[in-house]
Amino acid sequence: MAVRVLHIIGQLGVGGCEKQLLEICRRMDRGRFDLGVAYYARMENDLVEDFRRAGVSVWFTDKAAVGPWRFFLALRRFIREFCPDVIHCWQYSPNCWGRLAAAGCGYGRYICGERTATRLPRPLRLFEYVFGRRTLWTANTSAVADALVRFAGCSRSRIRVLHNAVEVPALDRAAARRSVRDELGLAPDAPLVLAVGRLHEAKNYPMFLRVARRVAARRPDAVFAVAGDGPLADELRALHAEMKLGDSLRMLGLRSDVPLLMAAADVFCLCSRWEGFPNVLVEAMASRLPAVTTSFAGVREIVDDGPDRIARAVDIDDDEAMAGHVAELLADPVAGAALADAACVSVRYRFSWDRLIRDLERLYADFLAGIVEDRREVRDADG
Fold first, then answer.
1. CB-based contact 372:160 (threshold 8 Å)
2. In the chain, where does DSSP find H-type helix?
3. Can you tell me the mean pLDDT for 112-133?
4. What is the extent of the structural domain holding 357?
5. Which tens digits make up the pLDDT trace of 19-38?
6. Which residues contact 109 (CB under 8 A, 6 or more apart)?
7. 183 and 208 co-located in one domain
8. Are residues 360 and 285 in the same domain?
9. How far apart are CA 374 and CA 190, in angstroms?
């Protein structure tokens, strides 16, 4: 009989966490797992129909519209109807509501996942005090696991580190490069530096604009492109005008063709102050795009591959150092290609979907067997 897994998540918008969950649902063995998703906040351009096409049972109640108490009762009722063997909550709010509702249905054990390495909300410590001994945690980097221990009081032995997975679609890179450059009005050999992500404080785009200004002073032919949208869009447009970057900086808005943009670019930049697992950086490296990143907590275990570093890393807000690396990589395509090739080999092996699905299957098996101790040694031995 198939194991019934219910994923509880706040919303199904187009974000890194939601995309990871969607791919997990698409790739799990449906002969062995029956999957459901419960969510409670509407978002524009969400992934609901993608989940349904993947054969996932989807449940929704608008928590903001019905209020917390009625939402709690509705979620508890759905859990009873779905009758899952495993309840897997994603992120802070679902980790709280999901465990409360599941406990109200008589469930005594839960899986919870966290994906941010910053200070976690204070109430999580209270929930951990109540539910901690019955919770098996997942984190997508060791930095996130450390944050759970420090800010929520979680036991490190009950946290599994499951890195995100990436897969780069096969495409004609030469054709993609021509297409994007034709769209942007760029010459085939014009240097193009790319940044991708939500226009949010965490992504630190003002640093990227300062890098653009520094590099443009050395390479007036260089073009910088930002793909993404978010709450800081107007602020960044104003800063763009204030810094007089003109056509050297292109604000592309939300794009659905990021793999094509990566194929067209010469260097990728990530200026984040914090992230749990920087999917877009790993996707760039898997696309054989040389990368320069800030050295925030969640990135170090990704770019430090044994004795070799597979991306250039600088301190947060050090736009001078990042501009120097970008200029060097643009001036020396051979060095950039060597860096990109090493990165591609590393991340495609370490962050494959086969590996993540195998780790999840082991997680669910251990959970159903009542095992909560840390199994990193076993996973490392499997290599």
1. no
2. 16-27, 48-53, 63-66, 68-82, 92-104, 123-131, 142-152, 173-184, 205-218, 233-242, 258-264, 279-286, 300-303, 319-331, 333-350, 353-368, 376-382
3. 87
4. 3-165+352-382
5. 999 999 999 999 999 999 99
6. 134, 135, 136, 367, 370
7. yes
8. no
9. 50
